[in-house]
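Archive maintenance. Older records in this collection stored only the sequence; we are now back-filling the structure field for every entry so that each record is complete. The fields below show one back-filled record exactly as it appears after the update. Entries are processed alphabetically, and phosphoenolpyruvate--glycerone phosphotransferase is next in the queue.

ARCHIVE ENTRY
Title: phosphoenolpyruvate--glycerone phosphotransferase
Organism field: Streptomyces daliensis
Length field: 147
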Amino acid sequence: MSEPEKGAEGAEGGAKPLVGIVLVSHSREVADSVARLAAGLAGVHEAPVTGAGGTPDGGLGTSAELISAAAERVDSGAGVAVLVDLGSAVLTVKALLAEGDELPAHTRLVDAPLVEGAASAVVAASGGADLDAVAAAAGEAYDYRKG
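Back-filled structure field:
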């Protein structure tokens, strides 16, 4: 996980708040590994990204509590982009968003592939892009063809 207050220079010369990124997977290991991979591919040691995977007891599944805590950790006031792996992860994030007070203000569920989208989102966020641009960069990963 990163220190989201570090990053692009703001208009006043101080650190500009960065969009935080939460990667939700049914597996803690997958979420944390994709977060490390995305930061590494972006060449950003302390990127504003963290994983929220599995259940609190380390099992497979999704946890509203872990997702909320992860979003709070990466929130610096510029918004939070949430990328998910499948099924119940989508439903859990949508339920948290519907509650209205379980996630930081300006948190958005982003429709993007988890791995490629995470890499694109981290590059954009680390460069100081706003939430709309981070979400767009992640979503564009659907266009990456491998064959």
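Update note: Residues 55 and 63 are 5 Å apart (CA to CA). The domain at 23-104+116-135 is CATH 3.40.50.510 (Rossmann fold).
Entry marked complete.
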